Amino acid sequence: MYPFRDMKAIFLGLLVVLTASQAGAQTAQDKAYVEARQRLVADLEAKRKSLPEPVDDRVWNSEEARAHEALKARLQEALGPAPLPKGFEISRSNPDPVCCGKGAESLDALVIAKDKLRAMMTTVGILKLWLGRDLQTALQSDDIDYERALNADAHVDVFAALPVKAPASADLALGRLVIKGQGVGRFPLHTIAAVVKNGRVLLIMTPASLEAANAGSPCEVLWQQSTERYRNADDLDARRTINEDAGNKLERCVKEHEGRALFPGLGHRAQKLVDALTAE
Among 22, 25, 62, 131, which is 20 to 30 Å from 184 by CA? Predict the structure, then answer.
């Protein structure tokens, strides 16, 4: 359970940062959003304390839903009237729940969707507040908790950078090959793309895929061979063994070929994500 007092302290701290002289990246709408977030958490705290024990889930869920919709509307105001990336629609918003539980720690963002793609969209100011440090530096140095930023169901570690180019309309774009989950296996099976454009930040994670590995990139060839073995394995134990063995081999390959283009084909796939997030 995420403690109410910790939630309150976090948002009070955010407001201090917001009003500080170095908070130039935040807009009036960002400030209004954070203030609304603080009030809603305080209201939920008071409501929770007022409810008889055991708490009626229907009553509490109704209060959460009310707060969630109010916060979602404020977030849309902060994001402004610019259209979503082409083909995307708003699915829901984070944090969900607003108060209490793991989901309450996630990045404040709209969840937007197109076909099987699902991305997070927030403002530069809100993400900077959530990070507590410079946005561009955090993204480029991988100093970001992608598990909470993406509200993922498992821990996320960056394995390698993927080559992508920022479209002319974007301020920043990056691609990453990542490991999702903790345990024995350390093999990267997912791709993350991030875009900063017009005061907005878009983040997305998808299963990594590749039609054909670049023959001149031994690490990418190894990645594709290992991925095929992993995904064709019949049982969980076999997958764990492949995951561990392939992860170790891929780590050695990356070290042995440092300075070379490691995953150009996977970079091309990450570029497609970047292009989707910036499409007009």
Answer: 131
Report the distance separating Cα 179 and Cα 158, nearest Å: 6
pLDDT tens per residue across span 19-67: 443 344 678 999 899 998 989 988 988 888 888 889 888 988 998 999 9
In a domain, 279, yes or no: no
Show which of 208, 238, 254 is a domain's final residue. Answer: 208
Burial of 98 (0-12, 13-18, 19+ CB in 10 A): buried
CA atoms of 233 and 236, how far apart (whole Å): 8
Could you tell me the two tokens for 139? 């993204």
Are 222 and 200 contained in the same domain?
no
Buried b (16+ CB within 10 A) or exposed e, 144-181: bbbbbbbbbeeebebbbbbebeebeebeebbbbbbbbb
